[in-house]
Specification:
Helix content: 25-40%
Distance between the termini: 18 Å
Number of helices: 5
Strand content: 25-35%
Shape: globular
């Protein structure tokens, strides 16, 4: 999700107000010491806009729900054919009949931040009513993240962008500080 927040700034005349707020925040972070709050609707608006203006390999759309104690729930449309093409055998045999093409998956993650680096663990994940194994979802995330222009390696702690040092959550809001 943070990778999508780091997408380049766009034309302000055609940008929705909540997206402009996030863009202004992102422009300020590298040069100023600030604390901020981003509400989940602002994150969702920004994700929708950024994925439309700068598509990401393997991801069609994403929305988030933010809960206390560094817990985030995502609803993401993933191209499972691309995941399987990028690393054959990733999708478990029993799930291949249902996880092909673009499918919406619900993934709950808990994250931790230490020294400006983020790690996460998949708490639970579902496609429709089917519970997905956490090890599979973690691997699918790793494969998709590696295909992004930034070439993220989610098997290691991820450096937070924009000199961010802290991230945490409360109900419906992400708090950050650099």
């Amino acid at each position: 999700m943070l990778a999508l927040l780091a997408i380049t700034l766009a034309n302000p005349e055609t940008t929705p107000p909540t997206v402009r707020k996030v863009q202004d925040l992102l422009a300020t972070l590298p040069r100023d010491h600030i604390s901020f709050r981003l509400w989940e609707n602002e994150i969702d608006d920004y994700l929708r806009y950024s994925l439309k203006t700068t598509p990401r390999p393997g991801i069609q759309s994403m929305t988030v729900k933010v809960f206390p104690h560094d817990y985030i729930s995502t609803f993401t449309v993933v191209d499972f054919d691309a995941v399987e093409r990028w690393k054959p055998g990733t999708i478990p045999t029993l799930l291949r009949p249902v996880l092909s093409g673009r499918k919406s998956v619900w993934v709950d993650c808990r994250f931790q931040v230490a020294n400006g680096k983020l790690t996460f663990s998949v708490e639970k994940a579902y496609y429709d009513e089917v519970r997905l194994p956490a090890f599979f979802v973690t691997e699918a995330i790793r494969i998709v993240a590696a295909r992004q222009p930034e070439k993220y390696d989610t098997s290691k702690p991820l450096p937070l962008p924009f000199r961010l040092k802290r991230l945490s959550t409360e109900t419906h809001v992400i708090l950050g500080q650099n």
